[in-house]
Structure formats: C-alpha cells, structure tokens
Amino acid sequence: MTDFNLLTIDCQASDAPQRLVQSLRDTGFAVLTNHPISAGEIADVYAGWEAFFASDAKFDYLTTPETQTGYFPFKSENAKGYSKKDLKEFFHVYPHGPVPADLEAMTRDFYDKLVALGRAMLSWIEDNSPEDIRALFSEPLPQMLDGSSMNLLRILHYPPQDPEDAHSGAVRAAAHEDINLITLLVSGSAPGLEARDAKGNWHEVPCDTGMITMNIGDMLQKASGGYYPSTTHRVVNPKEGQNVSRYSMPMFLHPRPDVRLDADYTANDYLQERLREIGLKG
Length: 282
Ligand SMILES: O=C(O)CCC(=O)C(=O)O
Ligand SMILES: [Fe+2]
Hints:
Jelly Rolls, binds fe (ii) ion
C-alpha cells in the first residue's frame, strides 16, 4: 500500500548507521530506540515543563523578536505560506537564553545530551553518505556544530482544542519543513505528528514513549544537493474524545552561523530569511 519506508532504528545494533541513513534517504525521517537518553529523564523533563505552562510564571519569560529566546504565547507562529497561527505555545532554550531556575539544571543537561546525540547522528550520516555527496559538504557534518550556539531546544505545548479554533481551520502545527540540519524530536505525549510522502500522502509517525524521531531539515537538504529530503510534516488536531494537551520537544541542530551550505547561502543568511517567512522576525 505504501512505499513510505520509515524505519525504527535500534541504536545499539551493528547495522544502525546504515539503516538510519537508508530511512532518512527514503523518507526524511527515522525513529530511534535504545538511544542514550533514558525514558525516566524524558518523563522528568516533561513533568517540569508541564507545570511551567500551567503557571503564570511563563509570562515573565516573554520572547522578543531580537532574542528569539524564552516564551512564545499561544498563536504566535504560522507555517511558511499560512495565514492562520498554529495552536501552540512554546519555549525556546538556547545556551545564551533564560530557563526558569527550578528547571534549569535538568533542562541544560537534557539539552547537552540531545546535542551530543545529534552530533553522533551527523557522524553516522557523514560516514554513510556516498563519496560524491560528502564532497558537497563544506566541512564534515558533525564539525558544523563545533562552536555553534544556535542549537535550539523547543518545548511545545498544544493545549486542548477550543472548537472555535478548529472550526476556523487552524491546526496544531500546519504543514512545514524544518529549517535546520537535522531535528531530534523527543516523542510527543499524544499522537498527531504526520509526515508527507513524495506522492502527497500523509503517514502517522509513531510516538511510543521514550522514542526519539529524527528528521532532515532544509539546511541538510540544501548542503546535500537534495540527496537527503527535508520532508514536510504537520501536527493534526486531536480526534473527538481525545481532546487533551499534547507536549513535544524538538531539538533543532543548527550549524555555526558562518558554515557554508551551498554557493548561495551561509547558515546565517538562510536562517534570517526563513525566520521572516514564519512571522517570528519582522
Ligand atoms: O510537535 C511535534 O511533534 C512536531 C513539532 C514540529 O514539527 C516543529 O516544531 O517543527
Ligand atoms: Fe517541524
């Protein structure tokens, strides 16, 4: 029925790097199990941030267009080309940005572990890419993260749905591609994430607790001359009878700003252009 061959990768298996690269090449996505971040730690981070979104303290961390750090209130971002704002609130964690004191140690540690995992995954991609594709990279992929302060951990909360919003055509996250090199998406607390295949059919991405979904972003698609696809994805509204909050945590791995992606763009040129398109920058 489907040729969308999204693989679940046991990170401890000897053929894990090859299977990862195959799944990414075929679908732009892969699901990681047996990775180094424990289910207990993921649950603790979710619990801490759930309490944060439920409190008014979040308004002390309001973001600004200049910083892009901190708290983004409900309905502040739209996907490229969409006028309706997504039905989500979120918090951007950067090394140079604030984190609430009671969550700081845990969140920074979690951030570092996700960056380390991202670097390992970029090494697997680098080592398993054909010679002619590697030749396109301006430097080895894991090295593109060296000295980068642009890696972004986004903590997302999609509140239970207001029927008016659903009626207006707004969705939790409209169809989009990620801007960065690769994304590590710590599995959502409820279903909803879908990826689109080349024919335009949507496929549910599995979200078992503790798993981490990985996907290619536009920067790696660009740097690989299109060899790795930056697959369009979205988060659909909850089904009737399942109208509960959904939480998820994507880590967007970004190169140093000066890294050259192709003849036309450095990472920074590209990021600034894209932020204007999604309404986060004027
Ligand atoms: O919440 C999710 O599962 C996906 C979020 C996402 O795609 C994004 O923030 O770019
Ligand atoms: Fe995304």
